[in-house]
Design a protein that fits this description.
heterodimer; A: mainly alpha; 12 helices; 77% helix; B: two-stranded antiparallel sheet; 14 helices; 2 strands
Chain lengths: 298, 315
């Protein structure tokens, strides 16, 4: 084949894949639930990024004369027992949730992908990795995270580490089950017969075909990570005060519930919006990328 | 069946071994000297050395692990210095409320979720399906502890119908027991129920497309008999799997829910131990919880075999 012919083939291939991408994007956008999810999540992202601009005052600024003020034009979400503005604190809290959620997704997807792929490709490794996986998955997620936090101490980095450890096995298992199917395909055999090296087969031929389940899983892990971070901080084992996180604002609100309902209500709404948004996106992606549920939908 | 049972139990051994190793390692990740943490900053070198010896901290790590594992196998999870009692006794004292709470939450979840899932599947695409599934989606998106806080705000603070927090054991009367447990159990059961309802719907939808369902309907059988006897029974395995797997979500939720409602259960024990860094208790309780989770999933697997002969006869 001469160079021109190769170019024609390449351009056809790329126009075909961009056509397919176009269809996927259009189908995703026609799913009203998924679009709602994207809007909700974008709102929270904007809140996190623009927190310094949107906040009415610094989240740590105290004013004793403004203690436990109900929501008003001046303090949209009211104030807490130190006279700090709850609206500004919820805004800044979104930064913690987004940072923890994203970091957990990146770390657990990355390490889980590596473990899952290698465990599917090398059968000897498989037994070892999957048994350790089973053991780790036997711990209820929050409990494992709490135990790790207890050992490492309450710091935001440790929150990220502990929640990532919890979800690496989940990702590894998902990737492995997708990769095992791909491994048996004829084209993998063909590449091997042509002398393709193992790392090339794993990363260039198997990995791209395991992306759909990984992406769906990552969306839900993001949602769980937000809930677990909030739970840990609520229990006093997560983001240490005075730095605001939705969980530790809720924890302040719990003790002051009788006098000041607003401290407890608004961060909760923020958590629900985030998690709901992520679940909507996850469901939408699953309908789109997972042929199994497509079939069930008829 | 006996062979199946034996195989399943044997397959648990490596899992439990990993659980033990991980549980042991986590606690030893602690930076610094555990003896210094326990005794505080004004401890003398002599006291520190004595405590280290008492806890076996001066031994090589594998010897410490061996001793600990040997103890665990004999039912000895260590001694809590803070509570001045064996960890097993502490767990035993806190077990009742957690069992009551989780069993009640699971029961509420199942009783609500399966009919909801069935209704949604049978009326697929209608407003019934859409509203139930929207509710289920909300259910998996609202953290149980926030539902709990809202319940307290509404039913205890505003309406004054139920006690805001606390726990009464069953021995103080069933009504009293339920009065304290209903709010925590419902708030804990909602997420669980939502997960089960979603799985019931999708699993039933798959079965409803099968030919034998069409045959049963063509025979003129009553629609509900077809759904409950023919379809649901075959849809049940994925539903059971979800019930088993999400039991972990339930236990995790219980930890936080117990703190919200001030229930003296395992969750409260763990949280208190974390706050005062009582590592022996954390280690023991986390180990017991993971073991319980493994056993529950074993029971779920055995239930499959009981419901579905294909599972127990498969080689």
């Amino acid at each position: 084949m001469d160079a021109a012919a190769i170019n024609v083939v390449k351009s056809k291939k790329s126009s075909l894949s961009s056509f397919r991408q176009n269809i996927i994007v259009r189908r995703f956008l026609s799913n009203r639930m998924a679009v709602t999810g994207c809007i909700l999540l974008s709102l929270i992202f904007l809140m996190a990024v623009l927190a310094p601009l949107l906040a009415s005052q610094p989240p740590l600024q105290m004013k004793v004369t403004d203690r436990l003020k109900a929501p008003s034009a001046e303090h949209w979400f009211g104030t807490d027992e130190f006279g700090r503005d709850v609206y500004s604190r919820v805004l800044y809290g979104s930064r913690i949730s987004m940072m923890v959620g994203l970091s957990v997704v990146v770390i657990s997807s990355g390490l889980g992908l590596i473990l899952g792929l290698y465990s599917a490709y090398y059968r000897r490794l498989d037994n070892l990795i999957m048994r350790v996986n089973d053991g780790l998955m036997a711990f209820p997620a929050i409990l494992l995270a709490i135990a790790i936090m207890a050992a490492l101490g309450p710091k935001i980095e440790n929150v990220i580490i502990s929640i990532s450890v919890v979800y690496i096995p989940t990702v590894a298992r998902t990737v492995r089950s997708a990769a095992i199917v791909v491994r048996e395909q004829t084209y993998i055999e063909a590449i091997r017969a042509l002398g393709g090296r193992s790392w090339r087969i794993i990363w260039f031929h198997i990995a791209p075909n395991c992306m759909s389940p990984l992406i769906i899983q990552a969306t839900f892990i993001f949602a769980y990570a937000v809930i677990i971070e909030a739970s840990l901080s609520f229990l006093g084992a997560g983001t240490p005060p005075p730095q605001p996180s939705w969980g530790n604002i809720l924890s302040d609100g719990r003790t002051l519930m009788k006098q000041a309902w607003w401290i407890m209500v608004f961060p909760g709404i923020a958590i629900v919006m985030t998690v709901l948004g992520l679940n909507l996106i996850g469901d939408g992606l699953r309908d789109l990328l997972d042929p199994h549920t497509n079939k069930a939908k008829g | 069946m006996a062979k199946y049972l034996l195989m399943r139990i044997l397959s648990l051994l490596p899992v439990l071994a990993v659980v033990a190793v991980v549980d042991f390692i986590i606690i030893h990740l602690t930076p610094g000297d555990p003896a210094a943490v326990i005794l505080g900053s004004d401890a003398t070198d002599f006291d520190l050395a004595r405590l280290r010896e008492q806890l076996g901290l001066n031994l090589p790590i594998y010897v410490q692990f061996g001793r600990w594992l040997w103890g665990v196998l004999q039912g000895n999870l260590g001694w809590s210095i803070f509570m001045d009692m064996p960890v097993t006794t502490a767990i035993w004292q806190h077990l009742g409320p957690t069992v009551s709470l989780t069993v009640m939450a699971e029961a509420i979840a199942i009783v609500l979720a399966i009919p909801i899932g069935v209704m949604a599947a049978v009326n697929r695409g209608t407003w019934i399906d859409q509203s139930f599934m929207t509710l289920a989606l909300l259910g998996i998106s609202i953290p149980s502890f926030w539902i709990g806080l809202n319940f307290i705000l509404l039913f205890a603070v505003q309406l004054n119908w139920l006690p805001a927090a606390g726990y009464q054991p069953l021995s103080n009367g069933l009504l009293n027991h339920l009065k304290y447990l209903i709010m925590p159990a419902v708030s804990l059961g909602i997420m669980q129920g939502a997960l089960i309802a979603r799985m019931t719907r999708s699993s039933l939808l798959e079965v409803l497309n099968e030919n034998y369902i069409r045959t049963a309907e063509a025979k003129g059988l009553n629609r509900w008999i077809v759904i409950y006897k023919h379809a649901l029974r075959n849809a049940f395995i994925p539903i059971l799997t979800v019930i088993g797997l999400t039991f972990a979500v339930l236990i995790g939720g219980a930890v936080v829910t117990e703190t919200v409602f001030n229930i003296p259960g395992i969750g409260k024990l763990i949280v208190t131990s974390v706050l005062r860094r009582d590592y022996v208790v954390i280690q023991g309780t986390v180990l017991m919880t993971a073991a319980a989770y493994v056993l529950i999933n074993l029971l779920v697997d055995l239930t499959y075999a009981w419901i579905d002969p294909r599972v127990r006869l498969a080689k």
